[in-house]
Amino acid sequence: MKSETIGDATFETWTPDEVEQAMKAGEIVLIDVRTPQEFMFEHIEGALLMPMAFFKAQALPGQSDKRIVLHCGSGARSEKVSRATVEAGLRTIAHMEGGFGAWKTAKKPYIGTDMSTGAPKKVA
């Protein structure tokens, strides 16, 4: 993980491997900042949705038990939203480098859409 200090805050950039390991260990809350349509088509199982268009840093849960890691499609939106949370006063925030695209490139499991039925399906 890469870490950057911004004032008295810490901004972290996690790899898909680090996110996957932390999710399996129950150490993080993964928040997807993509649109509802993107999320419904395919998403990381267990991720919560808080679209960038409606994102409110003050609505994020506390981080006493689990860290918050944001992600989007490529990493650009989640980095922008992460930096905005620092400006809003959060002292520690992280995002996943490369976003969902990097997750898929790394062959991590996710929930996709079965195009023949429209139903969700696990993709490995």
UniProtKB/TrEMBL annotation:
Cross-referenced Gene3D superfamilies: Rhodanese-like domain
GO MF entry, a single one: thiosulfate-cyanide sulfurtransferase activity
Domain of life: Bacteria
Record field: transmembrane: none
InterPro entries given in the database record: Rhodanese-like_dom (IPR001763), Rhodanese-like_dom_sf (IPR036873)
Any Pfam family: Rhodanese
Annotated ranges, domain Rhodanese: 24-112
Annotated PROSITE patterns: RHODANESE_3 (PS50206)
PANTHER family (UniProt xref): THIOSULFATE SULFURTRANSFERASE RDL2, MITOCHONDRIAL-RELATED, THIOSULFATE SULFURTRANSFERASE_RHODANESE-LIKE DOMAIN-CONTAINING PROTEIN 3
This protein's name: Rhodanese-like domain-containing protein
Organism expressing this protein natively: Sagittula salina
Origin organism lineage: Bacteria, Pseudomonadati, Pseudomonadota, Alphaproteobacteria, Rhodobacterales
